[in-house]
Amino acid sequence: DLHLHQQSQFILVIFILRRILNYFKMKNTFGIVGWSGSGKTHLICRIIKYYNNKKLNVCSIKHSHHNFEVDKKGKDSYEHLKSGSKEVVIYNEYKFAMITTKKKKKINLKDIVNKFSPDTDIVLIEGLKKGPTKKIEVYRDSIKKPLLCLKDKNIKALIFDKVSPKISQINLPKFHIDETEKIGSFILKEIENEKK
Hints:
8 strands; 6 helices; globular; alpha/beta; six-stranded parallel β-sheet; two-stranded antiparallel sheet
């Protein structure tokens, strides 16, 4: 019995250590980048639905370059922040949102990712062109902007709306923007390869 007790304590310690180590490493993150109007949001929503159908726990981050306000003057949570609260949580029994005051230093992506539930399988990040994670680029020919993948080694595939000489010369895996399942599977494979 003593041996069995020691063995179960050892397993518990290993479990706790794994949880602690997972806290300090970023969860399975993957970015979807592209110029404004390229179709990132439509694509990420389709990929989220695809993963949900596969019973994966998906979370997402929408990066914004713009100064944005979630709260509005006159709302109680706005008054909390204005009075000096550093963070305000608005919640009911079914959902919650946390609002923080404007930070003096930049917010670390890892800190945001670690706010997600521990049972999260994958975190998709829309935007954050210069982010440190692996990502795919969504490129729409009609936008007439430069390809991001030419200057970013973290971009692992190119998603396009129509074939052009510009797209053909890129030496990355390529998918048409409507190939949701293939794109979703590619992202999962990239995440699995990173674990090895």
